[in-house]
Write a structure and sequence with these properties.
Mean pLDDT: 95
Low-confidence stretches: none
Structural class: alpha+beta
Strand content: 35-45%
Strand order of the largest sheet: 2-1-4-3
Helix content: 10-25%
Shape: globular
Number of helices: 1
Number of domains: 1
Largest sheet: 4 strands, mixed
């Protein structure tokens, strides 16, 4: 069976650099970026992946 991954949320400090169909959370700074991503990771039972450009994606790996 082929594993499927789905981006379920995006957290970013750069509102001008994100768009799309997943929910987008804009953080004020790097501290809020990390905190929001950590909470969403736990709430959504997802994996957080830092893109190293001021954005973190939350992915559901099925």
């Amino acid at each position: 069976m082929i594993p499927i991954a789905e981006i379920i949320a995006v957290v970013s400090v750069r509102s001008d650099a994100v768009a799309g169909g997943a929910p987008i959370f804009i953080a004020r700074d790097e501290t809020e970026l990390q905190a929001t991503s950590f909470l969403l990771e736990k709430i959504l039972d997802a994996s957080a992946h830092d893109l190293k450009n001021g954005s973190i994606i939350l992915v559901n790996h099925r």
